[in-house]
Amino acid sequence: EIGDPVAGEKVFKECAKCHQVGPDAVNRVGPVLNDVFGRQAGTVEDFTRYSKGIVRMGVDGLHWDIEHLDTYLENPKSLVSGTRMSFRGLKDPQERADVIAYLRTFSAS
Ligand code: HEM
Ligand 1 centroid vs 72 CA: distance in angstroms? Predict the structure, then answer.
């Protein structure tokens, strides 16, 4: 991963329509993305609108690491069939690396 969190903050504006990060983050259309690294997919407490697909992937062992985040952000439906995240994906690998680096600044691991 060679991502730039400062550039990633700009990329995150696309995500911020649906997701929040930081100390005051609350669930919106999508779940809060604090501490996403290492977390089992589909398990943010109080987020009640997950798709069956993402919950099943989590139960089957999907945990968010760099590789899986990269795949999901490139094309959400390619990793999680039936995902409720209606986002066309980030085609540029550098943008994905940058936004992942930005997310990492809100994760302990
Ligand atoms: C789920 C990241 C854009 C709506 C997720 C998850 C991640 C993520 C990591 C999985 C969370 C978990 O398992 O708890 C991002 C990033 C984005 C982005 C980095 C921008 C590059 C968006 C946009 C929307 C959205 C624009 C709304 C149009 C959702 C929803 C889910 C989700 C509804 C739950 C998916 C499901 O239940 O299948 N997102 N997201 N996201 N996101 Fe996004």
Answer: 9
CA atoms within 13 A on the CB side of 84: 16
Rounded CA-CA distance 90/20 in Å is 18
**Overall fold of domain 5-104:** Cytochrome Bc1 Complex; Chain D, domain 2 (1.10.760)
pLDDT at 16 over 90: yes
Could you tell me if the CB of 14 is within 6 A of ligand 1?
yes
Residue 67 burial (CB count, 10 A): 10
User: Residue 85: CB within 6 Å of ligand 1?
Assistant: yes
The string of pLDDT tens digits covering residues 64-98 is 999 999 999 999 999 999 999 999 999 999 999 99
pLDDT at 20: 98
